[in-house]
Amino acid sequence: MFTNRFTDKRGRFFSVAAAAVLLLFYTSGVVLPPAATAKTCTTPLCKVTTTEDLFVDDADYSSFAEAAAKQLQWLAMQPPQKRVAFGDGSVCCTHIARAIETLLHYLQKNPGRLQLNRYIRTHYDIYQAQGFTACNNNEMLVTAYHEPTFSGSRKADNRARWPIYRLPADADGVLPTRAEIENRALFTGLELAWLNDPFDAYLLHVQGSGKIRFRDGTIQAVRYAGNNGHPYMSLGKLFVDKEIMPLEEVNNISIRRWLTAHKKQRRQMLQHNPRFIFFRWGDTQNPAGSNGVPLTPKRSVAIDPSVFPTGSIAFLQSRLPRKTDSITGNKGVQWQPLHRFVFPQDSGAAIKGPGRIDLFLGAGKHAEHAANIMRERGKLYFLLLKGTPVSREKCCQ
């Protein structure tokens, strides 16, 4: 089983990307312990024949079946010979589908923990993500994101003063930066709604989707419609670089507190990120990932599709904050082990390289609090049925 080995000063970033993880995490700024020795495997994914980790699932079967069914639907829509990235090579989508179908069928028998572990080792080739190149123990940085709900209005008033916009009909190529759009009110007339807080509006841009609670109590979803073509720049890294707060204290809660206390600097800080998101009204389903599949809470993950196979099945080991009545920050949080099968169905501007994975937690207060503080070490394995060919040929996404 995975044993968590953390201290309070463990060099970490809070991130709110593929949703919540995009806010603070900046891949090249991750601080992890240096390796004691050089890695024996230099590719993003390495086949392993022995591991002490147990392949047991700590979540309910219904969520697995739901996520697996969505994954299989997506795979069924792909051309028969489409290949997806698999480390330095690629693998055919039909082989990925067989791996998922086989495990889904077996789990319907409700096997015991040791039976499941034995079945995985007997019938599957196991490939471990090699994590950050600085780590000799193949560890990933595991963060989480959620679907937020913010207060707002369908019309601007003295409380709701921060608009979100529809995608311009003539949008083509690179559009103005966040600062230019906001300071010059370039898209007046395209407002979709107004939010009560500028940091809420910023977080909605980082998330790419969420919900707005209106004054009459109704709640409506907004979804990603496009962006201005500029790169994402990390607000959390800016706070560290300016020595406003130390790395281990940077999170959603502390940034909101600082922005509230320094309103004169708020606009300049938020406009450090030139990337700007446009929205559309959405339905009542969970938000869709980058491959168009509605996400399943605690099963869907965001990965870098240029390194890891989107549409596949993987196994994640890390830890999660326990569900408690109140979580206000990093201190006093109780943690529980995380061991479960997950499905890569999303990606994000901050989720780059073989050392990053982002777990979707759904909606609600606990999901929000957990996403705010989760930046843990973990291990990630990908599963293919034994004998599945992995080509050295690179694929085109």
User: Which structural class best describes the helix and strand composition?
Assistant: alpha+beta
The DSSP helix count reads 9
Main sheet specs: 6 strands, mixed, barrel
The radius of gyration over CA amounts to: 21 Å
> What is the class of the largest domain in the CATH system?
Mainly Beta
Rounded mean pLDDT is 86
Element-by-element helix/strand order: EEHEEHHEEEEHEHEEHHHEEEEEHE
Structure at a glance:
With 397 residues, the protein is α+β, with helices and mostly antiparallel strands.
Question: Which secondary structure elements does this structure contain, and how are they paired or packed?
Answer:
Layout lengths: L15 E2 L27 E4 L12 H16 L6 E4 L2 E4 H15 L5 H11 E6 L10 E8 L1 E5 L8 E4 L12 H6 L7 E5 L2 H10 L2 E4 L5 E9 L7 H7 L10 H10 L1 H8 L6 E5 L18 E3 L11 E8 L13 E12 L9 E8 L1 H9 L1 E11 L12
Parallel strand pairs: 6-16, 7-10, 13-15
Antiparallel strand pairs: 2-5, 3-4, 5-17, 6-17, 7-9, 8-9, 10-11, 11-12, 13-16, 14-15, 14-17
